[in-house]
Write a structure and sequence with these properties.
This protein has eight helices and 18 strands. It has 284 residues and is of the alpha+beta class. It binds 2,5-dioxopentanoic acid and magnesium ion.
């Protein structure tokens, strides 16, 4: 079951058939006592009302990022590929060892990624910083967690990152990670609390001037930490009244010679969720 937030309200999709969701507040949906049951009751017409919408009506809606007032947090160095790339980029700054240690440590790296106003949805522009010379997308399975700490769904996320800033000094991480347009989420939330199969593929394609400039893939089998463990650490001595998103880290890192440029198109596909597509822009 997929939940979409659009400029015409929210829609739930099952077996490619869409239904209008009568509850209009996204935050109320995310903090609903039993969201999955509520959405199923819409599909089953439990209240006698037919919420079916035509494909034409759905196509005329603009799909928005599936976020209300939730914060976005992120886990880092959860894939071996990420550990190795960061060790290399921080080598000259003497910070490489931290990444090796956090990959092996019991406590994961968790950092604050974004407020809702910095998040963009499908089709919108993600940004690269003007003062960065080395920018990459990070395709990440992203958990949606309600205020009770329960995983209620998953979406695709892009943790845009400035690798030269992060590599110069690990203490610059917030500047490398948190800026306007540095996070994309969507296109929908796949509702469900069961973990996705470890065989689930995550793929990234970057298209420049009509040509594939970079393509890479991984699977959830490469994710070193269980999503539930990441959530447990995030909720330790913390509260999220509207729920929160948690990006689970990247397992795809383009070669060091690659940096994003304005006009690039980024496609992140996580099969059961769909494809999150954004163009890259730099602020004037
Ligand atoms: O430690 C820096 C950030 C790591 C990260 O964002 C990732 O591994 O995805
Ligand atoms: Mg990341």
């Amino acid at each position: 079951m997929k939940l979409y937030r659009t400029d015409l309200g929210s829609f739930v999709e099952q077996d490619s058939i869409r239904y209008r969701v009568p509850l209009t507040s996204w935050d109320e949906l995310i903090t609903h006592d039993y969201l999955q049951g509520y959405l199923l009751s819409i599909i089953d017409k439990s209240d006698g009302v037919d919420y079916l919408v035509s494909n034409l009506d759905f196509a005329s809606a603009k799909i928005l990022a599936p976020i209300g007032s939730q914060e976005v947090w992120a886990a880092g160095v959860t894939y071996y590929r990420s550990r190795s790339a960061r060790m290399e980029e921080a080598k000259t700054a003497g910070g490489g060892d931290f990444y090796d240690r956090v990959y092996a440590a019991e406590r994961p790296e968790l950092f604050f990624k974004s407020t809702p106003n910095r998040v963009v949805g499908p089709g919108d522009d993600v940004r690269i910083r003007k003062d960065a010379k080395w920018s990459v997308p990070e395709p990440e399975l992203t958990l949606l967690i309600n205020h009770r700490g329960q995983i209620i769904g998953t979406t695709a996320g892009n943790d845009m990152s400035s690798r030269d800033i992060e590599g110069e000094n690990p203490l610059y991480l917030p500047q490398a990670k948190v800026y306007v347009g540095s996070c994309a989420l969507g296109p929908c939330v796949l509702i469900g609390s069961e973990p996705l199969s470890t065989a689930t593929p995550i793929s990234l394609e970057i298209v420049r001037s009509g040509r594939t400039e970079f393509a890479g893939a991984t699977t959830l089998a490469e994710l070193k930490r269980a999503p539930a463990t990441l959530v447990e650490y995030l909720f330790r001595d913390n509260s999220f009244p509207a729920g929160t998103f948690l990006m689970t880290g990247t397992g795809i890192v383009p070669p060091d010679s690659f940096t994003l440029a304005s006009g690039d198109r980024i496609r992140i596909t996580i099969d059961p969720i769909g494809t999150l597509e954004n163009n890259v822009a730099q602020r004037a």
